[in-house]
Amino acid sequence: xxxxxxxxxxxxxxxxxxxxxxPALDELARAWVEAKAxxxxxxxxxxxxxxYVGRPTPLYLAERLSEAxxxxxxxxxxxxxxxxxxxxxxxxxxxxxxxxxxKRRIIAETGAGQHGVATATACALxxxxxxxxxxxxxxxxxxxxxxxxxxxxAEVSGVDAGARTLKEAVSAAIRDxxxxxxxxxxVIGSAVxxxxxxxxxxxxxxxxxxETRAQVLEAEGRLPDRVLACVGGGSNSIGxxxxxxxxxxxxxxxxxxxxxxxxxxxxxxxxxxGARGILHGALSAVLQxxxxxxLEAHSISAGLDYPGSGPEHAFLRDTRRARYVAxxxxxxxxxxKRLSVLEGIIPALEPAHAIAWALANPGGExxxxxxxxxGDKDLAEVLGLE
Length: 386
Description:
Elements: E1 8-9, E2 12-13, H1 22-37, H2 39-53, E3 59-61, H3 63-69, E4 72-77, H4 87-100, E5 105-110, H5 114-125, E6 129-135, H6 136-141, H7 143-151, E7 155-159, H8 166-179, E8 184-187, H9 197-205, H10 207-220, E9 226-230, H11 235-242, E10 251-259, H12 270-273, E11 275-279, E12 282-286, H13 311-318, E13 322-328, H14 329-343, H15 349-360, E14 366-371, H16 379-383
Parallel strand pairs: 4-14, 5-6, 5-8, 6-7, 9-10, 9-14, 10-13
Antiparallel strand pairs: 1-2, 3-4, 11-12
């Protein structure tokens, strides 16, 4: 273990990768420990977060949503970040780290396109070569984000294998990294992958939870009863949860994609229904068959369409510190439309899952929901259903 970076969360996490990547993972872990302790790195990151990304993001009291839910409900407005989602928090931090490591080529994977846009943006900011892998089905569903990445100077490399979604994009990015590890840094966008990525991404995203905790205390004089966030790989949710894991009175609820129904087999809910297995270099909760083969995931939301979850989420589930539930496509689309009408905020389909669950499940008097992205990218997909 590299001191200062967790490699395991209980039994989960680890490094299940080709030997050629171990030195690069060791180098990354050491670089992250050093960067966290370096006032210069922290000051540059904090300055970019404030002046470029737009942090702190507001904690918005959604009054009409509160009335509909029957309890006070706040939205953590990560959709107001530059590029329109929480992904920029991690992308700027990792590209800044790559520059310290002397890596001048960046690769990334993306599902909904939000992480790809964020990484392409950070690379444009630092004049760095950028290649983003994306499944061709996701390219179809998220065409505006593909155009944004290309406008920002990134090469978008379509992956036409399997279900042509996020799982295949991650596999392609890992293959690229194995072949070009000497000069390339892989900016993983979620809290998944081999150590130190799950801890690194959580550390860069915990600004969501830390800001929220301070903001809700200032607004309400107390902590929330429930904190809710959608979970695919789990970056926005682990960032939010990190601010509250020590507060035992705050219930942490992660909302996965039940797709066409958990019984249908067409869903993306590994924490709710999956088993322990290895995916993309880490041991975690995954969707797999009896022989350990990874199953195809399904969600109307490209960002949740992934058959695995971050290893820390699996640990939080097993220790009962967090609870994981699932919402179907149709419920998410209804919440997408309802929040638009109630608050004048069009959410991404990903956080619409968390909004749908909160509306349907009473509990406590004060909720905070992470609004991890905006819904412009999903308009064609949702309107195409009508």
